[in-house]
Design brief:
The structure is a single chain. This protein has 7 helices and 7 strands; from the N terminus they run βαββαβαααββααβ. The chain is α+β, with helices and mostly antiparallel strands and 218 residues long. A 4-stranded mixed β-sheet has the order 1-4-2-3. A 3-stranded antiparallel β-sheet has the order 5-6-7. Helix 4 packs antiparallel against helix 6 and helix 5 runs parallel beside helix 6.
Length: 218
């Protein structure tokens, strides 16, 4: 049987938590921006891990969240670890998780369903579609709470893409390249699929009704 080291759960002010001087993690600005976006979109779905020391609650996992949340109350899981065990936790908690491989088919399936309203989170999801894991930095002066609007320009027309459409189109393009070895004739392939789909549903093959395109505005 494994030992249960969890001794409590509380909501406390983030600013009251004590930073761990042995913390080995460095958090770049783009990671902080993505974390802030996730907190704004989803809220608290995980707790900060702390242990009780003489001065109060010392952080073992959650320094970045503490730095972002100020006096806001946050959920904390309290564990009973001594100094040596805390050192092992700090060194191994993230690296052990990083050893896991990913099932790419399931990642692709989740990407098709995931929706991100916050720009930084959306950039991170798009990066996953492209085989990356690092969140892209927000543009200078950008607003992390507003989604970036993407458009697809075709001649004089401009089509606005939703978050889901952008992720799906990127995923389809990647799969096309994996199957054919390049992006050559990708648009022709898309148009052929559209033509076949319209024909299958008895729609005019050359029609533009319901296309959702709008002339570009100068």
């Amino acid at each position: 049987m494994f030992k249960d080291r969890i001794v409590g759960f509380e909501w406390v002010e983030a600013s009251s938590l004590i930073d761990n001087a042995d913390n080995v993690r460095l958090h770049p600005d783009e990671q902080k921006t993505a974390m802030k976006g996730l907190l704004e979109e989803i809220g608290f779905a995980d707790a900060i891990v702390v242990r009780k020391i003489e001065e109060g609650y010392q952080i073992l996992d959650g320094h970045m969240r503490k730095s972002l949340l100020g006096d806001e109350k946050v959920p904390v899981v309290i564990v009973d670890l001594n100094d040596e065990e805390a050192a092992s936790f700090l060194l191994t908690f993230d690296p052990v998780k990083a050893l896991a491989d990913k099932n790419q088919e399931r990642v692709d399936s989740l990407l098709e369903r995931a929706f991100a309203q916050t720009g930084a989170v959306r950039e991170m999801l798009n990066g996953m579609v492209k085989g990356e894991t690092k969140a892209a930095p927000m543009p200078k002066g950008g607003n992390s709470t507003r989604a970036r609007v993407e458009t697809l320009s075709v001649g004089k027309y401009r089509v606005q893409l939703t978050n889901a459409e952008s992720a799906k189109l990127t995923l389809i393009a990647r799969r096309y390249c994996e199957n054919t070895g390049s992006y050559l004739d990708f648009v022709s392939w898309i148009l052929k699929r559209v033509k076949e789909n319209r024909a299958a549903h008895g729609l005019p093959v050359g029609g533009s009704e319901g296309s959702g395109v709008q002339p570009a505005q100068d």
